[in-house]
Amino acid sequence: MIGYVTVGTNNLQRAGAFYDALLKELGAERAMVSEKYIGWANAPDAPMFMAITPYDGKPATVGNGMMISLLAKSKEQVDRVYKKALALGGKDEGAAGPRGDNFYGGYFRDLDGNKLCVFIMS
Fold first, then answer.
1. pLDDT tens column, 57-89
2. What Rg value do the Cα atoms of the chain yield, rounded?
3. Which among 40, 68, 107, 117 could bridge 93 via Cys, Cβ 3.0 to 4.6 Å?
4. The pTM of the whole model exceeds 0.85
C-alpha cells in the first residue's frame, strides 16, 4: 500500500549527497530527480524514499515536508480517492493530475493536517 515516503529539506544538494551515500548501503540509488526533490529506490517496483523541499515554500521542519503516499491501481482510482478525501473534509494540497512524465497524483491533508498523496506511476 505504501508507495513512497518523503522527508523535508532546506538544502536539496546537501540532502542528496547525504542520502546517496547512506541509501547506497541499502542497495538504493537515485530513481527520480527534479529541482524540488530526489527519490531513491532499490528496485523499480519497490517503495521509494524521497528528500523534498516543502511544497508550500516554507522552511522544512520536522513534519513540514513529511508525507505518506498511497499507491493506487489506476488514474481513476487516484481521482476517486482524492475527491473522497475532500468530500470527507480534507484540505486540497494539489489537485489530482499528471506531474512529470509518468506520475499521476493528488495531494491532500487529513482532518488533523497530515499530508497524504494518492498516486500511480505508469
1. 999 988 888 899 999 999 999 999 999 999 999
2. 14
3. 107
4. no
Cα 115 to Cα 32, 42, 90: the distances in Å are: 20, 25, 10
Are 91 and 45 within 8 A, CB to CB? no
Contact partners, residue 22, CB within 8 Å, separation at least 6 = none
Q: 65 and 53 in contact (C-beta within 8 Å)? A: yes
87 conformational bin, left if phi > 0, alpha if psi -120 to 50, beta if neither = alpha
From the candidate CATH numbers 3.30.460.10, 1.10.10.10, 3.40.390.30, 3.10.180.10, the one assigned to the domain spanning 2-121:
3.10.180.10
- The type of residue at 53 is T
